[in-house]
Amino acid sequence: MQHTHDHTTAWGTLTGTIFTVLSTIDSTDIIKTVVMAIIGASVSFCMSLFWKWVWARLRRPFD
Prior knowledge:
- This protein is an all-alpha fold.
- The protein has 2 helices and no strands.
- About 80% of the residues lie in helices and about 0% in strands.
- The longest helix has about 35 residues, at about 25-60.
């Protein structure tokens, strides 16, 4: 007995889901997400630099 796999239903469901999600996303949501990602990355980078500076100050012997 030979089994064949027909993936048309799976592909149809997948592409239908993708197109439905893409049609409901507004361009302002994408812009807002990009801006928030930039702000989050910038704050994270600045805080990393700050804590690196604090750690260096704490490890340095007092002058």
